[in-house]
Amino acid sequence: MKYIIAIFVAISIVSFTFAEENHTDDAKTKAEEYITACKTETGISDENANKIKAGDFSVRDEKAQCFTHCFFKKASFVNDKNEIQPDIMITKLSHKPNEKNEALETLITRCAKEKGESDCETSFKIYECYRGGASYESIRERQKKRLEISRAMRTCIFENRVTYTLAVQYGKGDFKDESDKGKCFLKCFAVKMKLFDSETGNPQKGELLNYSSYLSAEDLPFNEIIDKCDKDTERSENQCDFVFRMYKCLWNGIKNSPEPESLRNSFNDVFGFNQLFDDGEIKAELEAEAVMDETEVKEVKEANAKK
Asked: InterPro entries, from UniProt (predicted)?
């Protein structure tokens, strides 16, 4: 979510507008023109229009819905046949239109599937979906979760003395390395994230389902995947081995789901592997967070000096 930009410039404060990087002033001017025209066309009050602009969806009557739809049509988010235009939305809402923004594309694609009983309600639902996904509170919570994931991942890399390369391999679904260190690295991460019980080693379905909400893919059948892997993965006294096989099962379940490429990218992303840059960076952060004692810090510095 760190790539998500606001659907409209200053949407939470004053107005609908879209963020075309090289045409910001022009976009704002056009947006104000659209707003004024849509107020007149729909008869919505200034108070309720301002609520919609601020993301307050307590106003849900026909005028509010058609005000949103009116703006969408004037912004070309909806065509003359009242069909949503995801590609145009992505282009106009991207902070850098010439650069691919997978997070934004995923959010728009997901929200474009929203349907209402009327064209006005459909636009309203799409806007509500996007506003919720790109809100400050939503972004903040996801950033906090990513920080938690990143710290757990980096700590477990150090504690189990595995390489950054191996962590990335696991994140990409490459489980050729079945070393004890690698398996215990995954178990360490799973326990720190409370995905598996530290005492019994059993998967915690509630936490796994909650964790899956950070995946970008909305249609992921994670509930079914968890149940199947929990049933099919043979228990073992060796918790590291069990978690490794369970993790492998979960990953394969996701990989074999519909739209495997997007799911594969999402899974790699949500597990925080994309947050790790190199061994030195990981160790430097751990040192800063006082995870290592003085002797270990010295060892790391000496090792880095030899590279």
From this structure: PBP/GOBP (IPR006170), PBP_GOBP_sf (IPR036728)
Could you say which DSSP state residue 18 is in?
-
State yes or no: pLDDT of 190 exceeds 70: yes
Does 15 score more than 50 pLDDT? Answer: no
Phi, psi of 78 (to 5 degrees): -130, 135
> Quick one: pLDDT at residue 214?
58
Q: What pLDDT shows up at residue 185?
A: 93
Query: Do 65 and 127 lie in a common domain?
Result: yes
Is 296 domain-assigned? no
Residue of 97 and 262 predicted with greater confidence: 97
| Amino acid (one-letter) located at 302 | E
Residue 290 has what pLDDT? 39
**In the prediction, which pLDDT does 72 show?**
93
Same domain, 78 and 173: no
Secondary structure (3-state) at 289? coil
The reported pLDDT for the residue numbered 240 is 93
Residue listed under structure tokens 């002033």: 25
> Do 182 and 245 have their domain in common?
yes
Cα dist from 9 to 17, 19, 101, 106, 277, whole Å: 5, 6, 17, 20, 32
Same domain, 114 and 154: no
Domain that includes residue 79, residue range: 21-134
In degrees rounded to 5, what are phi and psi of residue 103?
Answer: -65, -45
Query: Quick check: is 290 in a domain?
Result: no
